[in-house]
Amino acid sequence: MGLSKENLKGLILALVSSAFIGTSFIIKKQGLRRAAVISGVRAGFGGYYYLLEPLWWVGMITMIVGEVANFVAYAFAPAVLVTPLGALSIIVSAVLADLILKEKLHNLGILGCIMCIAGSIIIVIHAPKEQPIESVLEIWNMATQPAFLAYVGSVIALVFILVFHFAPRCGHTNVLIFTGICSLMGSLSVMSVKAVGTSLKLTFEGKNQLIYPETWFFMLVVAICVVLQMNYLNKALDTFNTAIVSPIYYTMFTTLTILASVIMFKDWDGQSGGSIMSEICGFVVVLSGTVMLHATKDFERSPSFRSGAPSSPSSLSARLYPGNGEVLLKQDEENVSPPEGMCSRRQELY
Prior knowledge:
Helices cover 74% and strands 0% of the residues. It has 350 residues and is mainly alpha-helical. Mean pLDDT is 79; it is low at 303-350. Acts as a Mg(2+) transporter. Can also transport other divalent cations such as Fe(2+), Sr(2+), Ba(2+), Mn(2+) and Co(2+) but to a much less extent than Mg(2+).
């Protein structure tokens, strides 16, 4: 199945976006580290000194450029095509983390990168064509259908539970809390971004959509969701290893976004069962690659891996616990007990 002209534009923009976003993860983490050293309070524990750190802003600008490219991509191609290509940003961040942050990329991690690329190619080949939309009012009708309203209500309820119940208790020991909040809000922001992008595209074509209050409502939703995403993504990046945050965030965000898009825009309507299964298989290959990147990222840095012995629970928790693990590795060597009241480290990873 060949790519349509519109899908090709969306594909190119999505690739450019992945390159910039993957790079921004590394730059922002460097800025967060500098800010933590200067202020003594890490962003993951409520510090906001990173707002005065120039390097963090460079990372933000880089991410904004990537997000703008991604924003425009959604105006040309369906979310089922654009969103999974975010896996390429994981490859960029993994390689740069190895070179700059010294977060070792194992040989099997390279295989994970190859799997991400292969899965992305499968998705691109079988991607559905974008259904023509003539007005933002059409998108509003899609957004207010009962099935999508039920999805939105479920997302909002889960976000409130995570923010007010789980985040204060286990947010700094369970990587799924902060990334879960980002992913849930991200699925709504993508739907709104697509609505705004399509509205602007139609406006530039001479069909003014800015006269409709629905367009401005979607813009407001985008602003709210992006602010929440950035806040909790900063917490996740500052608290956990980049090699953990990137693939888990990608997996959850992409899965939820595809689900939301299928419900709202009915991307799979009109596609054959074979094409849909091919897209799902391609996505599974991409997810497998991200899991492999996550599972093998720090193997070569682990003494137990180099010696061929199995990792002990304490060494495993030290390698996957907040930050780069240097402090906690040292604590394990000195048999320092972890602070009381923390959630179980072994349970947090499963």
